[in-house]
């Protein structure tokens, strides 16, 4: 009888604890420096998710090693629902890019759901001597020995897009990796590098302000906030499509009740009019409700790992 009463008490306490989640702020780890595209998305998403959670979501920037330091920080965090990860396409490319990875994207996390697909833009320094994509392509091929292509570091979205672009036009350039999108953009604005391919969340303001030249977007259809910029496909690069998907994860073993609460908060956030407006200004929009689920993220991540692995291995670009 005493054991039965003790069990009942434990169950009631557990139920109460679950019902109270979250009882404090939730930390969202962004595995890149502040001011970059994933950070920008995270800060907007954090505000929207905080409303249904009735708790603040605090952004913690843990950059380095192409995002892997931040990812590992979440993989090893207490699985209590108070630490989550916002990561982009790099979650699916790291297994091929890094010979040694201290986490497994397919086994070390609980999945919350997809957040948004962010288009990429092909941009160049403001004084680049080409007025359209055709002239741009002709110029960079003719001057490939002196052209520099910036990226935010190995495994960054800008690195992957640049890699695919060089493969598509069968021309290699000197690549200049930076420790984040911010420093790469600063040098592009300053004219120290020639061009880069980066997310609209980071480039829209610079394009609209006339600080860089834009030669195309990487989606099948034009981006509403940049409607005057043609897609690369409509300019002759058939099949060239790159969208940087973002998703939320929690440490493996996070209680189902907490995961379910986070999923509901994500889905409510994606319907938030303010989030839709803010993301629209950045050239993207929230994903559909059907994709903002653990099942959809699990399936998408596996498919993306299978897709990017052969591409990266063929290019022979690895990190220790």
Please give the CATH class of the largest domain.
Alpha Beta
> Can you tell me the overall shape?
globular
Uncertain segments: 1-17
Main sheet attributes: strand count, strand direction, barrel closure: 9 strands, mixed
How big is the Rg?
21 Å
Determine the N-to-C terminus distance. 59 Å
Reading the helices and strands in chain order gives: HEHEHEHEHEHEHEHEEHHH
The overall pLDDT, averaged over residues, is: 91
Give an overview in words.
- The chain folds into two domains: 21-117 and 244-315, Bordetella uptake gene, domain 1 (D-Maltodextrin-Binding Protein, domain 2, 3-Layer(aba) Sandwich); 119-235, Periplasmic binding protein-like II (D-Maltodextrin-Binding Protein, domain 2).
- The chain is 43% helix and 19% strand.
- The chain has helices at residues 2-19, 37-53, 68-75, 90-97, 133-142, 157-169, 181-189, 200-208, 256-270, 273-281, 294-315; strands spanning 26-30, 57-61, 83-87, 109-125, 148-151, 174-177, 195-199, 212-217, 243-251.
- Strands 1, 2, 3, 4, 5, 6, 7, 8 and 9 form a nine-stranded mixed sheet that branches.
- β1 (26-30), α2 and β2 (57-61) form a beta-alpha-beta unit.
- α2 (37-53) packs antiparallel against α10 (273-281).
- The relative contact order is 0.19.
């Amino acid at each position: 009888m005493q054991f039965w009463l003790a069990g009942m008490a434990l169950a009631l306490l557990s139920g109460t604890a679950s019902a109270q989640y979250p009882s404090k702020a939730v930390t969202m780890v962004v595995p890149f420096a502040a001011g970059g595209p994933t950070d920008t998305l995270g800060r907007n998403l954090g505000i929207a998710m905080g409303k249904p959670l009735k708790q603040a979501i605090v952004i913690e920037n843990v950059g380095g090693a192409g995002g892997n330091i931040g990812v590992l920080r979440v993989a090893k965090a207490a699985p209590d629902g108070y630490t989550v990860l916002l990561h982009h396409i790099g979650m699916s490319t790291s297994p091929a890019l890094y010979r040694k990875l201290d986490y497994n994207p397919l086994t070390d996390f609980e999945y919350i759901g997809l957040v948004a697909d962010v288009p990429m833009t092909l941009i160049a320094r403001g004084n680049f001597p080409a007025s359209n994509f055709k002239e741009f392509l002709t110029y960079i091929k003719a001057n490939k020995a002196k052209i520099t292509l910036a990226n935010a570091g190995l495994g960054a979205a800008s690195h992957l897009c640049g890699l695919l672009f060089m493969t598509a036009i069968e021309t290699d350039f000197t690549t200049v990796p930076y420790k984040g999108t911010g420093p790469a953009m600063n040098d592009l604005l300053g004219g120290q590098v020639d061009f880069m391919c980066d997310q609209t969340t980071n480039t829209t303001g610079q394009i609209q302000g006339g600080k860089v030249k834009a030669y195309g977007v990487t989606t099948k259809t034009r981006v509403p906030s940049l409607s005057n910029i043609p897609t690369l496909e409509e300019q002759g690069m058939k099949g060239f499509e790159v969208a940087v998907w973002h998703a939320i994860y929690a440490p493996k073993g996070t209680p189902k009740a907490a995961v379910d609460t986070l999923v509901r908060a994500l889905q409510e956030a994606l319907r938030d009019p303010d989030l839709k407006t803010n993301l629209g200004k950045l050239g993207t929009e929230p994903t559909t409700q059907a994709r903002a689920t653990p099942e959809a993220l699990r399936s998408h991540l596996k498919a993306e790992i299978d897709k990017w692995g052969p591409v990266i291995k063929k290019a022979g670009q690895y990190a220790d």
